Amino acid sequence: MTLPANYFDYPYRRPGMDHDRYPYSNLFKRKPVLWPSGARIALWIVPTLEFFPLDMAPKGVKPPGGLERPFPDYWNYTLRDYGNRVGFARLFRALESRGLKASVAMSSRLAERYPHVLQEVNRLGFELIAHGIDMHHIHATGIAREVEREWIERCLSTLRRLSGQPVKGWYSPAYSESGDTLDLVAAAGCDYVCDWVNDDMPYQLQTKTGSLCAMPHAYEISDLQIFHFYKYKPAQFVEQVMDHFDFLYREAAASGGRIVALSLRPWISGVPHRIAAVEQVLDRLARRAGVWSATGSEILAAWKAQQ
Amino acid sequence: MGKEDPGLYDYLPYYDRPKITWPGGARLAFWCAPNIEHYELDPPLNPSRTSWPRPVPDVLHYAWRDHGNRVGIWRMLDAMDRYGVRGSISLNVAVCDHFPEIAAACRERGWEFFSHGIYNTRYTYNMSEEQERAFIEDVKMSIRKWSGQELAGWLAPALTLTERTMDLLAEAGIIYTLDLFHDDQPLPVNVRSGRLISVPYSLEINDFTSLLQGNATPRDYTDAIKAQFDRLYQEGADNGQVMCLPLHPFLIGQPHRLRQFEEALDYITSHDKVWLATGREIAGYYLTHHYDAFQAAIAAGKKRGEA
């Protein structure tokens, strides 16, 4: 056996990344950031409300939580739908009663199907983030650029029209992008994306079409990773989120303001036996001095003003 | 293809073998092996293994790993500095080309650089002998260029090997391999020319197999590290042992894991009779003081018909 000679070509083996989306940057060599009122931590809570169509039949990139049993998969359809009927209400109340802000990522099909959910987002003053059309529309290589452009425009125009919000954040379903997604999302008027989990602070992305930043959408402490993939218990969720917070809180004293992002799906976190763990985390974070509860756009604006 | 055993080592009873002693009468040689890696966004295809679970660009998995080089490594270095633990880096040598400040940080600390191939997305599978020889030479030259060191140790990139790898390593003057997990002590490896030994690495208390694949919580992981240490330290009173702690900055450098990592380092470094060593130092000491006795014991066992 032998490999083709080009297996030993290393076209990007030089300083910098192996793509042109962003330059390398050491977090600890950047200028420290100051949050409003001298807060150490910007708390960015991202409830993620996803519509999983009954007829989705996942192929290619399979979204976590996707329906994979033979049609009709009522088991998984209704478990996900539960989050958009009951779980989100529980989660929103937990946020409201503690006076916390949130940026709610939502499938545009959900906004069309369940107007009440969107009304609640607006009533509570939460920011809306675009989370694709639904969990069957996965952005990935293989989707024609024009098709993807139409998906992004359909999603954003629906959410903007129904909510009256400018909708400046984009979170691709399943954190999946094609090579065009960033350009298309920037062209469609978004300011930030939530798919690049390679940093603990915002950073500027390069696009062909406009200014776009990556927001640090902490993946390892998302409920998706902690409960759905690692299968940890609620007490372990509390322990790890608090460890994450405590570490960044301490780091912020020396290195400037940090961000704690809580990525929560109501079909996971909004069930009765887990919600208490989420509430416990919210209580502990809300009572710490120097925690600034903010939306993604507010955090990004504060960060940008100092660059 | 088609042999039932690698043919790389002979049987040696665990409780009836020559006694290893370490410098200063240490019971245990402890070494820490951070994997300093880069996974290319769009690597060429090796017929035996795909690089990413999703189509390129696999933004989620790429970014998750990239966090290690932007953020995680700097926190890991800081923690290791505080406990006086030197690293022996399992290096994808292209990291030095892409991120020279990472290479400089490891060099300034006097850490050992050993090989983990060129990129973690360039696998050894299917290389011809000539290609593999040139590949090893590339790594040797790169390590010399970036560290001034002569390459001594090898952990195959992504643990991908050919049947010829061990012979070619010995031929290239490399003295230890980390790809064999058959023992807790260094042992001779049978190669067609030269001298090669295996040094214990670990796929048990490796953060990758433990935290990521084994669903260990940060506390579980620290408990496992301590238990591994306790048993080897105890057995080391009779016969010197080796303990390796393999790490990946994209995992151990996450905020919710660092306090636990520090606790593990604190535990290990608070014991006496622990030799805080590098892989090269362990291999060199064994070759000078114990290799011949082990070879003689293996030969005697063969003669008695034990192996």
Which key phrases capture this entry?
heterodimer, A: 307 residues, alpha/beta, nine-stranded mixed beta sheet, 10 helices, globular, B: 307 residues, five-stranded parallel beta sheet, four-stranded mixed beta sheet, 11 helices
Q: SSE layout and pairings?
A:
The complex is a heterodimer of chains A (307) and B (307).
Chain A: E1 41-49, H1 74-97, E2 103-106, H2 108-113, H3 115-123, E3 127-130, H4 145-163, E4 169-170, H5 181-187, E5 192-193, E6 203-205, E7 212-214, H6 223-229, H7 234-255, E8 258-264, H8 266-269, H9 272-286, E9 291-293, H10 296-304
Chain B: E1 28-36, H1 59-82, E2 88-91, H2 94-98, H3 100-108, E3 112-115, H4 129-147, E4 153-154, H5 165-171, E5 176-177, E6 187-189, E7 196-198, H6 207-213, H7 218-235, E8 241-247, H8 249-252, H9 255-269, E9 274-276, H10 279-289, H11 291-303
Parallel strand pairs in B: 1-2, 1-8, 1-9, 2-3, 4-5, 5-7
Antiparallel strand pairs in B: 6-7
